[in-house]
Amino acid sequence: MILVTGATGFLGSELAKQLAAQGNNLVCIKRGTSVVPDILKPFTTQIKWVEADILDVFALDDALTGITQVYHCAAWVSFNPAHKKMMIKTNVEGTANLVNLCNQYGIRMVHVSSIAAIGEAKPGELISEKNHLEETPHENAYAISKYESEMEVWRGIAEGLNAVIVNPSLIIGASAGVNGSGKIFQTVYKRLKYYTPGSCGFVDVEDVAKSMILLMDSGITEQRYIVNAENWLYKDLFTETARNFKVPPPTSEAKSWMLNLAWRFSAVWGLLSGKPKGVDKISAQAASKKLNYDNAKLIKATGITFKPLSLSIKQICLALSVHSS
C-alpha cells in the first residue's frame, strides 16, 4: 500500500494521479481545509483521503497502518520572512516525524527535497549531486527548511531508513494554473517588459512524478538525484512563452542594480501598504545567477526521457489562454 503526503499540492496531485492511473490503491494525507484537486476526482475508488497534519505524530502513525511505500511531497513553500519560523518548523519537524515512523515500521520512502538544498558549482560547471551547501543560507527560509528536512532524511538513512531523495529544479506544468511557477507565465502574458540575465533548470511536473515512481520501484537507496529536464536562460524562457501567447517578448535586460532597487522598494511598499511584496530579495538575487544543473545521474539510474521544455511551455500557455478567455 502507498501513502502520499502533500497530495493536494501541485506535485503531489500529479504523483497521486500517475500512481492511481497505474492501478494502485493509495492513502493520501490532507489537512481539513484542503480541497481535493480536480485531476484526482476520477480516482475516488482508489484514493482514500485521510485528514492528518505531518506535525501530528499520532495521526501520522494511524495513517501509516499497512503502508509499505511513502512519497513525501508535503511542504510549506513561502518566501515571506514572516512565515520563516513556522515554515521551518512544519517542513523540518514534519519530515522528522515521517522519517522516524518509516524507520520504525520498515517503510520505504522517496523524499522530495529541492535544488535549494544543493550548493553551487564552480563558474562554467553544471551543478550536480556532489555540490553541497557550504553554509546554511540564513536569509532564505525556504532553502533552510528544505536543507534541514533533507538532513533529517540522511539522519534516518544513517539509522537504517530505506530512502531515496529527489532534488527537482523549477517545476512547471499546465496544472499549476496561475499559482507557483504559473505566475511566471501569467506575467509574460500580461506583457513583461524586462528579462533577467540569469538561468535555471526547469522540469515538467509530470516528469518529476515519473522520476519518483521509477526511483521508488528501482530499489535504489541512500542516494539523491537532481531532477532537471533542461537549463534555460530566463530571457529564452520569456521569449518562448511570449511567442506561444502571441504577445511581444521582453526586450530590455533588468540589471542587477535594478533588481536590488526593485526588491527594496517592494519591501518598503509592503510594510506601508500591508500587502504582499511583489519582488523579494531572494528571488531578485537568484534571477541574476546562472544556475545550471546536471541530470546525468538520474538518467543513468532510471533511463528517463524528459519532455522537451518547449512542449511544456506550449501546453502551459494553451491552458492559461483557455483559462483567460
Automatic annotation (TrEMBL):
It comes from the Bacteria. Residues 2-220 form the NAD-dependent epimerase/dehydratase domain. GO terms for molecular function: aldehyde dehydrogenase (NAD+) activity. InterPro entries: Epimerase_deHydtase (IPR001509), NAD(P)-bd_dom_sf (IPR036291), NAD(P)-dependent_oxidoreduct (IPR051783). Pfam families: Epimerase (PF01370). One of its GO terms (cellular component) is cytoplasm. PANTHER family: NAD(P)-BINDING DOMAIN-CONTAINING PROTEIN-RELATED, PROTEIN YEEZ. This is NAD-dependent epimerase/dehydratase. It comes from Mucilaginibacter paludis DSM 18603.
